[in-house]
Structures are given as C-alpha cells and as structure tokens.
C-alpha cells in the first residue's frame, strides 16, 4: 500500500531520495569539517588570535547552516516536513541567520587579511569581538524581519525545508530581497574583491603568493550567485515557470558553501591549519621556514 503522504508537485520518489542524499552528504561533510574547525580553536591555545576568531565565527555560522541542511535531509527521507508551520518559520529563520552571518564573516576575514598583509596593522581583540557581535546581531535582525511581516518564510518546492518565499513576488518581498542583495551580497562581494585585489598586488610586489587571492570571492559567488539570481528574478517575473527541480538544485548547491569555506579558511589558511593539525594529531605543526636572503 502507498503511504499516506503525497509527493510534492514535480517530484518523484527518486528525486526525494536524491535531493535528500545530496543534503545529507553535503551537510555531514560540512558539519564534520566545521566541527573540527570549532573544536580545534577551543582546544589549541595558540590558535586563539583575533584573526582566527573570525574564522571560528564563520565556522559557527556554517555549522548552523549544515544543521539546517541536515534537517531538510531528514524531512526528505521522511517524505514530509514533520515540524509543522511554526517549525517551518523557525527553519527559515535559522537558515537565514546562518547565511547572512556566513557571508558577513567572509567579508570580515577579507578585510582582516587586507590589514594583515597590506597595512600590517595589528588587529585587537576589542575590534574583533565588537565586529563579531555586530555581525550576529544584524544577521538575527535581518532574518527576523520576515517573521514580523516583511517577507515571509515558507516551504521550498520539495516541502522538506523552508526559506524566504520567493514565489509571492509582492512589494514586501521585492523590497526585502533587494535590500538583502545590496547589504549581504553586493557590499560583502565588493569588500572581498577590493581587499583580495590589494593583497594580490602586495603578493606580486614581494614575489610571494601565500594563498590564491581569486578563490574566496569566486567560491562565494559560485555557491550563492545562482540562488540569489533566482530570488532576484522572482522580484520581476513569476518564478513558478522555473521547474521545481531546478529551484531545489540551487539551494542545495548553496548549502555546499560551508564545505568550501572550511577547506579555504581553516584547512587552507596557514595560521589556522597548524592549530587544526595540532588538535587532530597532537603534534606541533612546523611551517617550512624560508631563510630570508639579505
């Protein structure tokens, strides 16, 4: 006998399983990598620097997004959303906080790296802690607005997770979405672009490439760009003409961002990687030293 649930419009059993598995695998990999990043920071004393605190906060935001994705994976396997309409609003709210904080911390890290490499200004704890508090407070503030009527959280096409409802396309949605695009995509992207551009010029001048300055912004735009484009498209056209499957692929792609962030900012970052190595193996990680030629 068939179970009592009806499949969402445009989805077969196989799609539910495939999307659920993609969310599960992406969520688990991201969760493990970001958990290592967080625990290493808490366990290895030498890592607790103001700069690394930004990476730690980015990992917290990304871990929260992984939990959001794992919840949707669970619902995919259950073939239905088990937490009701209020659970849906909370899921959308929690996901939105994670995303806004994650993108903000990527911009903060680029700003910090600019000062590390280009201006050589020392970052103080007071600055870092203040900035992190501001990021979290603003993320909660912006994410809470749909709960009080500016925009609305509702089910994604597969009905296993919730996000900002882009199918309404009314004035509230348009003004809220375009505000988010300005403050949480264009502004962070511009910060990252100008910071990494300056760092790149500095690396070229000293003939030493410490990391790939093109990657951070490219990764962020590759993960979030397509989804945001769809949301912006929904401001002007009826997005329901886009197939439900494609509308599900984009948020699933965006939710892989925490994996790349962990690889880029903690495992791929010289000052953070040594602490992660120390935490995982118990060995001090010695960076190969290059003698300066007088």
UniProtKB/TrEMBL annotation:
The keyword Transmembrane helix applies. GO terms for molecular function: G protein-coupled receptor activity. Residues 33-265 form the G-protein coupled receptors family 1 profile domain. Pfam families: 7tm_1. GO terms for cellular component: membrane. Its main location: membrane. It is found in: Membrane. The chain crosses the membrane at residues 16-42, 54-77, 89-111, 123-153, 173-194, 215-236. Keywords: G-protein coupled receptor, Membrane, Receptor, Transducer, Transmembrane, Transmembrane helix. Coiled coil: none annotated. It is a multi-pass membrane protein. It comes from Gadus morhua (Atlantic cod). This is Retinal G protein coupled receptor b. InterPro entries: GPCR_opsins, GPCR_Rhodpsn, GPCR_Rhodpsn_7TM, RPE_GPCR. GO terms for biological process: phototransduction; visual perception.
């Amino acid at each position: 006998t068939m179970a009592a649930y009806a499949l969402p419009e445009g989805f077969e059993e196989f799609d539910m399983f495939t999307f659920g598995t993609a969310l599960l695998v992406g969520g688990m990999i991201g969760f493990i990598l970001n958990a290592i990043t967080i625990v290493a920071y808490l366990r290895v004393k030498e890592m607790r620097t103001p700069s690394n605190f930004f990476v730690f906060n980015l990992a917290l935001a990304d871990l929260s997004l992984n939990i959001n994705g794992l919840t949707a994976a669970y619902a995919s396997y259950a073939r239905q959303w088990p937490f009701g309409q209020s659970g849906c609003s909370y899921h959308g709210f929690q996901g939105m906080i994670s995303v806004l904080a994650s993108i903000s911390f990527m911009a903060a890290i680029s700003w910090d790296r600019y000062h590390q490499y280009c201006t050589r200004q020392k970052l103080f704890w007071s600055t870092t802690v203040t900035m992190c508090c501001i990021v979290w407070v603003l993320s909660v503030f912006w994410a809470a607005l749909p709960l009080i009527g500016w925009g609305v959280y509702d089910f994604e096409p597969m009905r296993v997770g919730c996000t900002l409802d882009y199918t309404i396309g009314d004035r509230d949605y348009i003004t809220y979405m375009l505000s988010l695009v300005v403050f949480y995509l264009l502004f962070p992207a511009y910060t990252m672009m100008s910071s990494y551009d300056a760092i790149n010029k500095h690396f070229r001048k000293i003939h030493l490439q410490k990391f790939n300055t093109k990657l951070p912004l490219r990764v962020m735009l590759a993960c979030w760009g397509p989804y945001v484009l769809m949301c912006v498209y929904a401001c002007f056209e009826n997005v329901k003409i886009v197939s439900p499957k494609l509308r599900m692929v984009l948020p699933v792609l965006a939710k892989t961002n925490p994996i790349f962030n962990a690889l880029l900012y903690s495992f791929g970052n010289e000052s953070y990687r040594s602490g992660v190595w120390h935490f995982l193996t118990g060995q001090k990680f010695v960076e190969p030293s290059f003698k300066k030629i007088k």
